[in-house]
Design goal:
With 440 residues, this protein is of the alpha+beta class. The chain folds into 3 domains: 94 residues, no CATH class; 64 residues, no CATH class; 221 residues, no CATH class. Helices cover 38% and strands 22% of the residues. It has 12 helices and 17 strands. A hairpin with a 3-residue loop joins strand 9 and strand 10. The longest helix is centred in the middle third of the chain and has 35 residues. The two termini are 43 Å apart.
Length: 440
């Protein structure tokens, strides 16, 4: 395919007055509403064709940028890249399957990747592969919701609607929570490697900087670990279900099967889809558990105290099995979800240093330097205080934040298998119910 790159045109003068100032951006936040979409075979093929065209357009912009820099030692700005994308769309039949604003968003994506490289935050932009370019963005127009109606009864009542995307067609959606349609700023349709399709609505909302009006009364310290995923300062704990470790045998079999297939053949693509489904099941399992734990804690407590862990150093200095379990526990994601749940309700989050939290005594503040990772009970050599290691660490976190519990719990107790948490007890281990998509 031969592509003639036209010279990019600059926008007319006076365009700068329409740009938002930094102050206006600082008072707005963007929230994502993600819904599952169900496409027919024809619509799925059209979406696949557009994703391939968007990937080719991205690579064409990259090639033009490289040629411009080699010739004139000049890099194109966002306006020039957008105009170049529109000109390529006009001149090439292959790119005309894309909506005009979708083509401009491809230019924006390349510009952001290049800026992150200049800032030292990412690697240099390189040529995209078609099977890895999986999303399209409609920023302002080209989409609409219609035929909204309710389905289900009682607690299972949901809203069903049809989303029309220009150049693609209709996608039925199940809207399981309220969507402020009038505030939607962008619509992103994403095809996952497991062949699932999701639609993400980005909504701009005013940022709530003020905390709740009531004075915080209850605080909880959370100690994160590998054996117990979370130990609370009130004596409750949540066992680590280790979803990746439990699914590792199945993943290894699928990975070996994939390596024997011819690259990009039909059997290779089928096996790759099965492997992607297994990885997404592990990811969905973990995130579902984190969000339910965050909802439980944010409803009961006003202040969340977490340790500021350096997860990269823990992974770098650990053994092979320990690194696997640290990746499986995903402390950074768990902390982000817990913080989001508290701040969403206007509650306080206090991160404290994690240095010597396991070796420090809650009562006297002495340090037990002989404590090892195998010791699960903390014994203070100074005052004789004895308590479970993780429970003592959660109490130390609470004390460092300036909160002292009225009484120290003596025994640990598991978080009850509430239906709202989606947990059940099996063989002495807290397990989670399978997600709905695994049932059928």
């Amino acid at each position: 395919m031969i592509i003639n790159f036209p010279k990019p045109r600059l926008l007319r003068r006076g365009f700068q007055r329409y740009k938002y100032t930094r102050k206006e951006y600082s008072v707005m936040r963007v929230r994502a509403y993600r819904f599952r979409a169900y496409a027919s075979k024809t619509t799925a093929r059209v979406l696949k064709t557009q994703l391939e065209a968007a990937c080719e357009l991205y690579n064409a912009l990259l090639h033009a940028e490289q040629g411009e820099y080699e010739k004139n030692k000049h890099t194109m700005n966002k306006t020039e890249l957008r105009q170049l994308a529109l000109d390529l769309r006009k001149q090439n039949q292959e790119f005309q399957v894309l909506h005009s604003q979708v083509a401009q968003q491809v230019a924006d994506r390349f510009y952001q990747a290049r800026e992150r490289f200049f800032e030292g935050l990412a690697n240099k932009p390189k040529k995209k592969k078609p099977y890895r370019y999986l999303s399209l963005v409609y920023p302002q127009s080209g989409w609409r919701l219609s035929n909204a109606g309710e389905v289900g009864l009682g607690k299972n009542k949901k809203k069903k609607a049809r989303l029309y995307l220009s150049k693609i067609g209709f996608l039925p959606l199940i809207i399981h929570r309220e969507l402020p349609e009038s505030q939607v700023s962008q619509v992103c349709v994403k095809a996952y490697p497991s062949c699932r399709i999701h639609v993400i609505f980005l909504v701009e909302e005013p940022e709530t900087k003020e905390l709740a009006s009531k004075e915080p009364k209850r605080a909880v310290g959370v100690d994160l670990g590998i054996t117990r995923l979370a130990t609370l300062s009130d004596g409750r704990f949540l066992e680590n279900p280790r979803p990746l470790e439990r699914s590792l045998d199945r993943i290894r079999v699928l990975q070996r099967t994939l390596s024997r297939k011819r690259f990009l053949s039909k059997n290779w693509l089928k096996t790759k889809t099965r492997l992607a489904k297994q990885h997404e099941h592990v990811k969905d399992f973990r995130r579902d558990l984190f969000f339910k734990l965050g909802a439980l804690l944010s409803q009961e407590y006003d202040v969340l105290v977490l340790e500021h862990l350096n997860v990269q150093d823990l992974i770098r200095n650990g053994t092979k099995k320990r690194r696997l379990r640290l990746h499986d526990s995903s402390f950074s994601e768990l902390r982000a979800v817990l913080e989001w749940g508290f701040r969403k309700r206007g509650k306080l989050v206090l991160p404290v240093p994690a240095y010597n939290t396991s070796r420090e005594c809650f009562l006297c503040g002495g340090i037990n330097k002989g404590l090892t990772l195998e010791d699960r009970v903390f014994h203070c050599p100074h005052c004789g205080f004895t308590l479970d290691r993780d429970l003592n660490a959660s109490l130390v976190l609470l004390k460092r934040a300036g909160w002292v519990p009225p009484s120290v719990p003596v025994e640990l107790r598991p978080i009850p298998p509430l239906p709202s948490l989606g947990l059940r007890r099996q063989g002495g281990v807290m397990m989670q119910e399978a997600p709905p998509f695994m049932a059928g």
